[in-house]
Design a protein that fits this description.
Layout (H helix, E strand, L loop, with lengths): L1 E12 L2 E12 L3 E5 L6 H9 L6 E6 L2 E2 L10 E4 L11 H12 L3 H14 L15 H13 L5 E5 L7 H18 L2 E5 L3 H7 L2 E6 L2 E6 L1 H6 L4 H7 L4
Parallel strand pairs: 3-8, 3-9, 6-7, 7-8
Antiparallel strand pairs: 1-2, 1-4, 4-5, 9-10
Helix pairs in contact: 2-3, 2-4, 3-4
This protein binds adenosine-5'-diphosphate (ADP) and magnesium ion.
The site of magnesium ion has 2 residues, from helix 1.
Length: 238
């Protein structure tokens, strides 16, 4: 089953043509990394997939259904932002449960999912704390926990580690890889960090100026970059 299929997706803001004929397939359970320089359209592409922006043209299919007109909360997707985007006036439990309450999930279901996510992310001792009382790494884990409790089929991560220091980045990267194997969900992960891309990805999509430059496994791109641009990002140094 294909988790996500983008077919000739374009996105313009007024006269600015940001995404150009994007065609990408994500298989169920696949970990796909989007890489490309700042401003090439990575965040816009995630927002279009999530439904936070409308595509100007083209089709978005999730788990076999065309979702162009489906609101974000009904797409079976959860997104984790670089900035965490936690609610400061809600404690960790409140941040993690808000979307489930809005969905009208029963209390017992909400509690079970929060406990499960808290265990996975070692957040048990912090459930009553507020974001201002947490470290950057803990905040990012809460943001990931908030996505997990929704049990999405597809996770979208937008440079989730870029605000963390190097040691924490490595730990959190390993944690995300573990989550992927535990949850079995499809994940799309945006980064401009070559190590993250090479270590996490089943498949890498290289974007440049709103276009797909090359798609392949880390080894394919490393050994056979389509051009100098891809080589510069991911290719072998020779
Ligand atoms: P990336 O995440 O790869 O750094 P973005 O998707 O944030 O790139 O941005 C891609 C391009 O789209 C940039 O030129 C940016 O200025 C433009 N852009 C993004 N959002 C908007 C918007 N709401 N209105 C106008 N231009 C936008
Ligand atoms: Mg971005």
């Amino acid at each position: 089953m294909t988790a996500l299929s983008l077919r000739n997706v374009n996105k313009s803001f007024g006269d600015i043509h940001v995404l150009k004929d994007i065609n990408i397939e994500v298989e169920e359970g696949e970990f796909v990394v989007f890489v490309g320089p700042s401003g090439c359209g990575k965040s816009t592409l995630l927002r279009v997939i999530a439904g936070l922006e409308d595509a100007t043209s083209g089709e978005i299919h999730i788990a076999g259904n065309q979702v162009n007109l489906t609101p974000p909360s009904k797409r079976g997707i959860a997104m984790v932002f670089q900035s965490y985007a936690l609610y400061p006036h809600l404690n960790v439990r409140g941040n993690m449960t808000l979307a489930l309450k809005q969905e009208g999930q029963p209390k017992a279901v909400i509690e079970e999912r929060v406990q499960k996510a808290a265990n996975m992310l070692d957040l048990g001792p912090y459930l009553d704390r507020y974001p201002s009382e947490l470290s950057g790494g803990q905040r990012q884990r809460v943001a990931i926990g908030r996505a997990i409790v929704r049990e999405p089929k597809l996770f979208l991560f937008d440079e989730p580690l870029s605000n963390l220091d190097a040691a924490l980045r490595m730990n959190t990267r390993i944690e995300i890889a573990n989550l992927h194997s535990q949850l079995g969900a499809s994940m799309i992960y945006v980064t401009h960090d070559q190590t993250e891309a090479m270590t996490l990805a089943d498949k890498i999509v290289v974007l440049r100026d709103g276009r797909v430059e090359q798609i392949g496994s880390p080894m394919e791109l490393y050994n056979n970059p389509a051009n100098q641009f891809v080589a510069g990002f991911l290719g072998s140094p020779s």
